[in-house]
Specification:
Number of strands: 33
Radius of gyration: 26 Å
Distance between the termini: 28 Å
Low-confidence stretches: 1-26, 387-392
Mean pLDDT: 90
Helix content: under 10%
């Protein structure tokens, strides 16, 4: 805490130092070259009672999430702090952010010279695709698992890049008990070997080792205090082709989430691409088993993940497809494949029209990983037995089940087929049409007692430009399903007056709900002002309860009725 106060005091001193301190002789001042920059973000909601949509009663009547980053650089040195405030947190964000209304949870100092970089304090990091380690911030999800410790990066030779770190992870306003130690190496062979510098074949190899330490606690089980994992990766590029892959392994790590079984974890991720002018294709595949890796074995929700498991589902942007049935990665086990194809029909052709037409197709297929439980029980029964700790006789190693990464299960987690056609008809009019078919295991992902949801979604979006300053954009969306809440319709009209103003009016209506009282409209109106780096918006309306996801990581969003204000800027 003393170090934090000292670093913060020094930083603020730089900010408020009087101009007289800069006035030195002609040789230059002590503070010459000092640069200060940063950004800030304020997001607030005001809440009204609305029993029709199930909006919770909020005693404070409002919530505000705000932060400011301040960064100072001078030559080889950089220092920064982030001030955060939650008075109280916006609904849908973890209430533990409200344990402290304002504070400085992120601060660091960094030195870089001649291929060496040393960071003390807080930092984010990722090894490869993140299968074994990724510390990152996703503010919209309330995720921040930054490290607090020391990180060293060093490049002893051109093409050789080494990283080492040790630290604890952020746990809201505190730090996790677990200590994470990690090392990563990457070799860019075309940089390292002179003869390969001009080769069309580009080769990169990498490897990582990550270890966490956490005391055994009071469990009746003998829990491993040190858990180690490792990963290896490669990336090849040949002209228009690309191929990359990563395999990760984690030693047995009994946790609350996996019912304290002593089974190792594995994961593999592969991706192949081909692209040329007007055409591109990507195929990705992933299989993971028991790869939840946290710095605290008792943690749940999105807390204290050391690693990140890349999503194999399209990140939809249209409202109904993005917020009703988005897929959340299942770290304890899943097998998936995703394919993307994009093709641009040449402009001036009969099919392409005067300005050309772009077609994009995406397919995602995700299933359970097939498991052979030692008791030959189904998954629910096996989990219950594990909770009761009666597996010892049937499974002396307490591993729970047997499987391999290629053992595709029959249970469907997610299906998504979508096609998007984008065409510019005139200089002032552009149209985009999208169709998506989804199958969604709502019992697994949202814990709802229901068969898999099967949904058909259609979207039409138009953009009209009127002169140099005016534009009108509109969306019409519909979703058909016989499960869950039934059919939906969504409409949006947006007027833009360049370069400063955007006015948006939208509504979504659950007209197909089997419960007549739940056939509710969710209208919203919003005004946005943009001036250089400053963006301000104010809106009023209803917010539908649902799930918000980014990259396969999700948070629940409660229903709300009221005013929303957002301000962002950088300097």
């Amino acid at each position: 805490m003393k170090q934090l106060k000292l670093l913060t005091s020094l930083f603020l001193f730089f900010l408020v130092a009087p101009q007289a301190l800069f006035a030195q002789d002609e040789g230059g001042g002590v503070f010459d070259g000092l640069q200060i920059h940063g950004n800030f973000d304020v997001y607030g909601q005001q809440y009204n009672k609305d029993s029709i949509i199930g909006a919770p009663i909020v005693p404070e009547k409002s919530g505000i999430n705000a932060f400011t980053n301040l960064i100072a650089t001078k030559g080889k040195f950089t220092a920064g702090v982030r001030i955060e405030s939650y008075i109280p947190p916006v609904q849908g964000f973890d209430v533990r952010y409200g344990n402290q209304p304002i504070g400085v949870p992120f601060r660091y100092a960094r030195f870089a010279q001649d291929g060496l970089e040393v960071t003390a304090g807080n930092f984010y990091e990722q090894f490869g695709n993140g299968l074994i380690l990724r510390a990152y911030e996703e503010r919209a999800l309330g995720i921040d698992n930054a490290f607090d410790g020391v990180r060293v990066k060093y490049s002893p030779y051109k093409g050789v890049y080494l990283k080492a770190l040790v630290g604890n992870q952020r746990y809201y306003w505190q730090k996790s008990d677990g200590i994470v130690r990690a090392f990563d190496s990457e070799f860019q062979l075309n940089e390292l070997i002179t003869k390969l510098e001009s080769s069309p074949l580009r080769v990169s190899l990498g490897g990582s080792i990550v270890s966490k330490f956490q005391a055994g606690g009071n469990s009746s089980l003998k829990l491993p205090e040190n858990v180690t994992g490792g990963a290896g990766r490669f990336q090849l590029n040949w002209k228009d082709f690309g191929l990359m892959g990563e395999y990760a392994y984690k030693a047995n790590d009994p946790t609350k989430s996996n019912h304290y079984i002593y089974k190792e974890g594995q994961g593999i991720f592969m991706s192949a691409t081909y692209s040329r002018k007007g055409f591109g294709v990507n195929i990705s595949a992933k299989s993971i088993d028991n790869m939840e890796f946290r710095s605290d074995r008792e943690a749940g929700l999105n807390d204290l993940f050391i690693n990140y498991l890349p999503a194999l589902s399209r990140q939809h942007t249209y409202n109904l497809a993005a917020t009703l049935y988005p897929y959340a990665t299942q770290p304890n086990g899943e097998v998936g494949i995703q394919g993307d194809l994009i093709y641009k029909i040449k402009r001036g052709s009969k099919m392409g029209g005067k300005y050309g037409t772009t077609i994009q197709v995406n397919v995602s297929l995700i299933n359970a990983l097939n498991r052979d439980y030692y008791t030959n029980a189904d998954m629910d029964t096996a989990n219950a037995l594990l909770d009761q700790q009666v597996y010892l006789e049937a499974d002396p190693g307490r591993k729970g089940y047997k499987t391999n990464l290629l053992n595709l299960g029959d249970s469907v987690y997610y299906r998504d087929f979508n096609i998007e056609i984008d065409r510019k008809f005139t200089k002032h009019f552009k149209l985009k049409a999208t169709y998506a078919f989804q199958e969604y295991n709502i019992a697994l992902i949202q814990n709802k007692v229901s068969p898999n949801v099967v949904a058909n979604i259609a979207v039409l979006e138009g953009l009209h430009t009127i002169g140099k300053k005016h534009s009108i954009r509109w969306e019409a969306q519909t979703l058909f399903t016989d499960q869950d809440q039934g059919d939906w319709i969504f409409g949006l009209v947006e007027y833009g007056y360049s370069p400063h103003w955007i006015v948006t009016i939208l509504n979504q209506y659950n007209y197909g709900n089997k419960v007549e009282d739940l056939r509710v409209n969710y209208p919203t109106a919003q005004v946005t002002y943009i001036q250089n780096a400053l963006r301000m918006s104010i809106g009023y309306g209803r917010q539908r309860a649902g799930i918000f996801c980014v990259g396969g990581v999700c948070r629940n969003v409660p229903a709300a009725n009221g005013l929303t204000v957002a301000i962002t800027s950088s300097f």
